[in-house]
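Lecture 7, part B: from sequences to assemblies.

Below are the input chains for today's worked example.
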Amino acid sequence: MNTKHYSKDDLDNILSVKGNSLYSDAFKRLLRNKASLISLIVLSLITLLSFFGPYLLQYDFYETDWNSIYLPPNIENGHYFGTDGNGRDLLVRILYGGRLSLSIGIIATLVSVSIGVTYGTIAGYIGGKVDTIMMRIVEILYAMPYLIFVIILMVVFGRNIYLLFIAIGAVEWLTMARIVRGQTISIKEKEFIEASKSLGQSSLLIIIKHIIPNLAGTIIVYITLMVPSVIILESFLSFLGLGVQEPLTSWGVLISEGAREMETAWWLLIFPGLFMVLTLASLNFIGDGLRDALDPKEY
Amino acid sequence: MNTILNVKNLSVNFNTTQGIIKAVDNISFSIKKGDCLGIAGESGSGKTQTFFSITGILSDNGSAKGIAEFDNVDLLKLNEKQLSKIRGKKIGFIFQDPMTSLTPHMNIENQLIEVSMTHDKNNKNDALMKSKEVLDIVKLPRIENLLKKYPHELSGGMRQRVMIGISLMCDPLFIIADEPTTALDVTTQKEILKIFNDLKKYKNITIALISHNIGVISEVADKILIMNKGKVIEKGNCQEVLISPKHEYTKHLLSCVPKWMK
Amino acid sequence: MSHYLLEVKDLNCKFEIERNLFSKNKYLHVLNNINFSLKKGSTLGVVGESGCGKTTLCKTLLNLNNKERGEIIWFSKNIDKFTKKEFKHFRKKVQIIFQDPYGSLNPRMTIGSIISEPLGIYKKENNKKSKTLKVLDIMERVGLSDMLFNRFPHELSGGQCQRVGIARSIINEPDVLICDEPVSSLDLSVQSQILDLLKTLKSKLNITMLFVSHDLAVVKSISDEVMVLKEGEIVEKSSAEEVFNNPKHRYTKKLISSVPKINDIG
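Predicted structure of the full complex, as structure tokens:
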């Protein structure tokens, strides 16, 4: 075959024409959704504040001051959100708590997504008996009381923060596996998968190149819905006293402490609660927005 | 007046994220009572939107302007309530895919009588009588069981006959058939086209037959309209246009039809 | 060495439609006793209406479907006896073009990646630049502008997508092309362009073709031999001239007479 001669400039020109992928279209649609846009901004602010905010504040999160215990919020002494029973500044502790809660939310979710996607695509793609067995295992695990499982882990291995990540992630993967398996089964029937098989593509590469990219939309939506559920789970465990240890703190710990002091020091509950609610609501709105954006009616 | 539909300067625009799309661009045509007008064109030519806009079934982001006089009433000036009285009663529809146009959870009998009972306010018995009459016209076998069957239990050809039957229940003056045979096999298609010819001949119903298949149009239509990109390219007597096309586009379209079919 | 690239003997296919625990399973017999051969360089047209089994035939020949019984002999070797290596070679030599131009392309991949995918499967030593050049060359051959390289399927028209499908199928120079209703979803003018493209490729690359369609006119224009299928059985098989001008079977005659004809020369 005669190959037309392409100069380097020709090639650069051709390759620089970027098409509009379905994801970039979806992102544009997402930005047009007002609730999602505001939520994105709010979430970004909270995240930035949590990670960088403490450097701008004068107090440290473990700094105790016995002369300033249970101070309500005021501007003059710099305790904008007040202090707790140990004289520690609440705002700084909320931001540090944010670091932990958000990190747990994201890392545990990533762990569960990795396990769930791998498990679900394999079960869905192979199908037949393998699929049946794999899904029965999932169903049995679903039936187990996860809380007891987590508590046992915590008791046996001690209250290790990394263990918390893994314990939560190991529980949440079940839902992801189910969803991914269902999606895989429907994608598997599509003609372009058949086309790939007819080209001689290996099953592993079909899953990686064709199935997972087409799942990504669903996975992203579920991630935004899973992160809140992970944060709540962590908060619940912390509320029970099984989560993070002093002096580290998370929103769950703060809310738990705040609930105890609710009648005398309302700020200890309201402010951490507010941050938690804003974050979870934002994630939910973004999740909704993503679901709408990734489900285009035009195509 | 002999003309049943008179369309003047009809334009249909769609408001999309990519800007305004002109689906139909200032077209005019008329149909005589009892005639069959075939509207030929490729996808995107505006042939379907022309009739959807006149009868008020455009999607939300569409808007139509112009004049569409049907039976001495300008349809474009009517509101939705008035239009819904005309649709099904004076104007019948036959769509391309009978599987999605028929309600999957209702049996054939109920779908047939629903139209009659809604528009003509017939009671159930009268409607049932009418449905039997209609099933004869479309040549569906008169089996008791047939009426109780659901759409998914019938073949494509039978479903399309049911669709035609439903459109005939209220004795319409005018039927709009949008690609009625595209989803059907060629042998079934032949039978359905025969039904159209019978409707024209025995019931004097005016038909607008939209199709990208010129062969289909030539079997039934008296007049033809060739559309491309929202504009009417050529119009006239069907056989004349197909034998001696005047416009370049018509000639091009005809040249794409495999020689064997001519 | 046989000059038949493909020989099919007593091919039967069935689909399970009901699985019963205590009584026999119910099956739908999609193909019954199919026998035919494909000569190198020729084009065999397969016509039939919906439900006749033509798509099942295409997929079974490629081993994308299981058969109930019968022999499929490609390049003088029975497909059941292919080794893994022979299978890989087979996939390279026999390609398929699907009916749905959009459905057969991964919506998340660029045109360039779609067309180059086959290269990655067989020629692992190609570097990125030579792959790109090869893809651009094929795109030109099938009439696609090279500016479409980084675009996505939803940005292209039906006709363009079908060209992408064709490009993907021919990039590894197959011997056989199975076309499953390749132009049925396309507009009339685009249909004739794609058919012309297929005819050109057929002669230039000396490809043997199996062309399946419900549209008799389309099949007649491209086939040397024609096979008529009805409800899973071959009712007539002869040269294209014979089948269309002198049909023998009742069903073939019925099919031909059902096609609406425009009574003129245009």
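Note for the exam: The two ends of chain B are 36 Å apart (CA to CA). Keep this in mind when comparing with the next example.
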